[in-house]
């Protein structure tokens, strides 16, 4: 159960009074939380070509990391990025209350699994000191790191454990893009927090470009730019190969809690489907989310499609009837159709790789989709995220 804001603040106060030392002052915390001897970090702007919910701008000897919407409906957040051994500059009035974060950080509390592949691809796994929940993690290397004691868990019940975070005193905590009740208590305790809201970007490349934020925090700007450039190039080249091919009709998604959320054309899933050469009932909708439809309307508009890109989990097509007998009328569920789910790689406790590595690598998701919809364009493709549901 998520604790109320009052309970979090009250319990944290009791925790501090019970004998935990108060958090260090900003300079002391910074000196203990960054990599010494790394030299002065860049103070120039970080260019973003797809992401619009974040920016990193250069200042007079420092940078400002700004997140326009750290969670749905949230107000903009700014974090000042200084060098590890840099003297604190005079800040303008609009940054007077902003958290100050010394970089490169030598420890990261990462709440969202989407942050983990960015950490591993920048070769700074040793700096991962906290994760939200091990159960949600699929990457074997990250799991081994946590299980060996390299990182603690601080959000097992889908809420930040403020007492655990304050006790560990991390250099920075990256949120999961939600307004967690613990955040005011962490701010009071002097824990720098970055509102990580990659999922609010429109489009898969915008989400992946958040690796540049991780690069700025860890002193890996050049490496982050190089990783993203490779992802962008592979994605755009593959999308260009598909352009001009005859669109393949699909059934998108599946019923959930009484309705059928169909991805709109401008949503992240919709952009991936369109770039892979798919057509479906929501393709023309100029919306960035999912549109709740009735099962009957989806069957009427998309039911004749021979390919179904579902969510699962279905072990065989027999499970489709168990979900709802009416779904067996979808042509893709018949002997001449194909049903695919996004659960090819799951961790030992159920973590799904598509919500982890897949967010950084939309190029790999796109390749899976192209191989399903236009197999002649990618012969011999090895699937990473999608699995064809066998007949049963």
Name the descriptors.
disordered N terminus, 15% strand, elongated, 392 residues, alpha/beta, five-stranded parallel sheet, four-stranded mixed sheet, 17 strands, 31% helix
Could you characterize what this model shows?
With 392 residues, the chain is of the alpha/beta class. The protein is 31% helix and 15% strand. The strands form 5 sheets. It has a 5-stranded parallel β-sheet with strand order 7-6-5-8-9. Strands 1-2-3-4 form a 4-stranded mixed β-sheet. A 4-stranded mixed β-sheet has the order 11-15-16-17, with no helix packed on it. The longest helix has 22 residues, at 221-242. Mean pLDDT is 90; it is low at 1-30.
Strand content: 5-15%
**Percent helix range:** 25-40%
Shape field: elongated
Beginning-to-end CA distance, first to last residue: 38 Å
Radius of gyration: 23 Å
Stretches with pLDDT under 50, minimum 5 residues: 1-30
Within the largest sheet, what's the order of strands?
Answer: 7-6-5-8-9
Average of pLDDT: 90
Instruction: Find the count of extended strands (DSSP E, 2+ residues).
Output: 17
Number of helices: 14
What structural category characterises the helix and strand content?
alpha/beta
In this structure, how is the largest beta sheet organized? Answer: 5 strands, parallel
Please sum up the structure shown:
The chain is of the alpha/beta class and 392 residues long.
Topology (elements, then pairings):
Elements: H1 5-17, H2 26-32, E1 54-58, E2 63-67, E3 77-83, E4 100-103, E5 108-110, H3 116-121, E6 128-131, H4 140-147, E7 152-153, H5 162-168, E8 173-174, H6 183-188, E9 193-194, H7 204-208, H8 211-218, H9 221-242, E10 248-249, E11 251-252, E12 260-263, H10 268-275, E13 278-279, E14 290-293, H11 295-302, E15 307-309, H12 318-323, E16 338-341, H13 357-360, H14 362-373, E17 387-388
Parallel strand pairs: 3-4, 5-6, 5-8, 6-7, 8-9, 10-13, 11-15, 15-16
Antiparallel strand pairs: 1-2, 2-3, 12-14, 16-17
Helix pairs in contact: 8-9, 9-14
